[in-house]
Amino acid sequence: MGEKMLMKGNEAIGEAAIKAGCRFFFGYPITPQNELPEYMSRRLPEVGGVFLQAESEVAAINMVYGASCAGGRVMTSSSSPGISLKQEGISYLAGSELPAVIVNIVRGGPGLGGIQPAQSDYFQATRGGGHGDYRTLVYAPSTIQEMVDLVMMAFDKADAYRNPVLVLGDGILGQMMEPVEFPDEPPPEPLAKPWATTGAEGRPPNIISSIILDPELLDKHNWHLMEKYEQIRKKETRWEIYDPYEAEIFLVAYGTMARVARAAIEAAHSRGIDCGLVRPITLWPFPERAFDELADRARAYLSVEMSTGQMVDDVKIAAAGRAPVYFYGRAGGVVPSPAEIVKKIELIFEEIKGGSKRA
Amino acid sequence: MTYQVIMAGFGGQGVMLMGTLLAYAGMLEGKFVSWIPSYGPEMRGGTANCMVVVSDVEVASPVVTEPNCVIVMNRPSLDKFERVLLPDGLLIINSSLISKEAERSDIRVLRVPCNDEAMAVGSAKVANMVALGAYLAATGAVSFESVEKSLKKALPERRHDLIPMNMEALRRGASYVNR
Amino acid sequence: MRKIFERPKSLAEAAQHYCPGCTHGIVHRLVAEAVDELGLAGRTIGVSPVGCSVFAYNYFNLDFVQAAHGRAPAVATGLKRVLPDRVVFTYQGDGDLASIGAAEIVHAAARGEKITVVFVNNAIYGMTGGQMAPTTLVGQKTTTSPYGRQQEVAGYPIRVAEMLSTMEGAAYIARVAVISPQSVARARKAMLKAFTAQLEGKGFSLVEVLSTCPTNWGMTPVEALKWVETAMMPVFPLGVFRDWEVGEA
Predict the structure, then answer these.
(1) Rg of chain B in Å (alpha carbons)
(2) Considering just the CA atoms, what is the radius of gyration of chain A in Å?
(3) pLDDT tens digits, A70-107
(4) Dist. CA B46–CA C131, nearest whole Å
(5) DSSP bridge pairs for C85
(6) Do chains C and B touch (3 or more CB pairs under 8 A)?
(7) I need a surface site. Which of A23, A346, B179, C21 has the fewest CB within 10 A?
(8) How far is CA A131 from CA A56, A95, A124, A319, B108, in A?
């Protein structure tokens, strides 16, 4: 690993992308992710790449589509309202099976909403987001270092599965600085892309399209996509279980919220209640297996989110009735404090009783 | 030990840089650090603040809701952040620009005339360093040497001639502790 | 025996789905001829729109990408920025280019994006069944302007060639028709010139082709050709509106 640097999340994403061989970036300004396109506009020309500020998020994602068709390693970024505009293009990328990395530095909504950190785009990110029956691999880093590692991996996974990959951050992860290290070794040689439209010299023409008017064929295409998503589910699901106290109550949180949850776990411990944390690293696929592992022990789950309750649905599916699922969240850019979460933990502890408070 | 500090002031008072230097110095000392700025329209001429954590253990939440120190460089920041300080926490007030006294009695208050001291060493721009010096002398969060190394990283080469003035400002701030 | 007529190599040997009397077939051929004549077949990528020509990729022996409605210029931009030594063209109708894709086409031209745009203007939405287009003439009846386009309700047709010719990034902008042997010959020249502009790196190029839609206009093919001349050409005059070789026309 190289020298440790103190770096802003948005800029670290940019450098990670370049280290991963990304040479094309198409973006449009929106707070709180502007440092990322700004960084790319400075750095990409230095490495022989192209930065282009598009006329809209809609145009940006379609430029990504074109660049991906051409076989380029390409990325775009935005924040919630802009990501809504990109959904058409993301659906087309999924339908045409094209790789791309899309970063969403989430802010509070709906509508224009605010500019402070939020996790209210969980549904949009994990249910496809645009029209049609598709999924995108969704990474949810919780530190700047993890953001770097996952962004670098995102490009390889996008190529391997020929599918868009989302990286979900929030205003805090985008704006904060933390120490970060980049690997010294050059990125692995990207996969060959014989399907790319690069001019048909010496071979039959390549066609990239998502239009399939015959229902039988479109049905087949959808099931083909679903098989691919099943592979992703099997091989790419990631999570972390933090369980220093062999707890019976587990918080479930991702990204920034997972960090606050850890602070809350320490605070609860000092008040005699032991909790653990399930931290999904991929939001889709959701780490249902983590809940199977904990099934014998967990007596309650508490989903903590910077939203009015979105991931909690997946927690309920994963808990599958084996333990009650509670929720605590704040929206609009308010980050729940450890103290608020501890209060909720105490209520849950009262409710499930039977579990004895540590002496 | 975990140091959690909120630094606040007008845009242009070097509040962000003060926090960055603290985080950088902590990193150079092998500690776990995080730094988050306030962002958005409030940055355009209004008050700006940053939250810094320097710790011996992994930083759980980078969001500082219970700071053990607050540094306020202007009056609106005092009004906003005095109340969030933990009991027994340290409040550093830039007394050059803030005549108002702290309202709470369960905290430690250090009044430092940051702008006056900064002018005395040559530039109002190093008022932030005066405040940082007071903070470091009071808490020992990181060493002055680490801050000096951080300045070399944070300032472009052509501005390195300003480092001695910055270090002098740091020492002047420190002189307000325990006297 | 001297061969005087053959299928351009870049034009696929496939039956086209277009209606009888539709001029898409002629425009396809003109594109293929230009690509062949300039020897570009192995390094050309086409971008098809949403509209009647959505399946254009079936009719060319070229690499092809199908784009979302109106976004072909953005998709072409992505292709060209990754592959600057290839030739990239979009093939778009009036609804695609001048309505939903108005932003993309204007900005591609403004950036001087080195792509070629083939713009087929038949003053109506064909594929969706004859609705009003941004180029529908005042008074023209369509399924969404059953009383004729009324300017107080629906405004006026957009003159794309004239509008884009104000862009400094545009190297070549022309409007042609394909209603007679003479007009087709002129269209052929314009197509060649547009691709040449791209090859020489001069900037954005566009050929607007006044075309027919007998089915949705409710006319015979012959009436439709006549209507282009008598009704469309007064509103959309033919000509070269920008040419890098002679300056702004």
Answers:
(1) 15
(2) 21
(3) 999 999 999 999 999 999 999 999 999 999 999 999 99
(4) 52
(5) none
(6) no
(7) B179
(8) 20, 10, 11, 28, 58
Instruction: Enter the ipTM.
Output: 0.94
Query: pLDDT digits over A239-264, tens only?
Result: 999 999 999 999 999 999 999 999 99
Question: What's the gap in Å between the CA of B113 and the closest CA on chain A?
Answer: 29
Question: How many residues appear in chain A?
Answer: 359
Instruction: Give, in words, the CATH class of B2-174.
Output: alpha beta
Domain C24-248, CATH homologous superfamily name and number: Thiamin diphosphate (ThDP)-binding fold, Pyr/PP domains (3.40.50.970)
Show the tokens assigned to A242. 């933090």
* Residue A104 CA from chain centroid, whole number: 8
Contacts of C63 in chain A (CB under 8 A): 197-200, 205-207
How is residue A241 written in tokens? 């279980």
B23 in A contact zone (CB under 8 Å): yes
DSSP class of residue C113? -
Going by the DSSP 8-state scheme, the letter that residue A9 receives in this structure is H
pLDDT per position as a tens digit, A42-65: 999 999 999 999 999 999 999 999
Question: What backbone phi and psi angles, to 5 degrees, belong to A262?
Answer: -65, -40
Residue type, A245: Y
C58 DSSP 8-state letter? G
Average pLDDT for chain A: 96
Beta strand pairing call for A50-53 and A24-27: parallel
Residue A62, token pair as written in the block: 């379609």
- Three-state secondary structure readout of chain B: CEEEEEEEEECCCCHHHHHHHHHHHHHHCCCEEEEEECCCHHHCCCEEEEEEEEECCCCCCCCCCCCCEEEECCHHHHHHHHHHCCCCCEEEEECCCCCCCCCCCCCEEEEECHHHHHHHHCCHHHHHHHHHHHHHHHHCCCCHHHHHHHHHHHCCHHHHHHHHHHHHHHHHHHCCCCC
3-state secondary structure of C234: helix
The conformation of residue A56, written as its DSSP 8-state character, comes to S
Domains of chain A: 5-236 (3.40.50.970), 239-352 (3.40.50.920)
| C24 within 8 A of C16, measured Cβ to Cβ | yes
SS3 category, A338: helix
**pTM for the whole structure:** 0.94
Q: Please report, for residues C18, C58, C60, the alpha-carbon distance to residue C15 in angstroms, rounded to integers and kept in the order given.
A: 9, 9, 11
| Nearest Cα residue to A30 out of A79, A73, A67, A74 | A79
* Contact state of A337 with B23 under an 8 Å Cβ cutoff: no
Q: Is C204 on the interface with A (CB under 8 A)?
A: no
Residue B34 tokens, joined: 């995080």
Indicate the helix (H) or strand (E) that contains A242: strand A239-242
Spatial distance between the Cα atoms of B178 and B70, rounded to a whole number of angstroms: 18
Contacts of C42 in chain A (CB under 8 A): 199-202
Helices A215-236 and A144-161, packing angle to 10 deg: 140
Record: contact A74-C78, CB cut-off 8 A: yes
Which strands make up the sheet holding B108-112, listed edge to edge? A5-8, A177-180, B32-37, B47-55, B2-10, B69-72, B90-94, B108-112
Q: How far apart are the C-alpha atoms of B128 and A284, rounded to whole Å?
A: 45
User: What SS3 state is found at A179?
Assistant: strand
Phi-psi region of A298 (alpha: psi -120 to 50; beta: other; left: phi over 0): beta
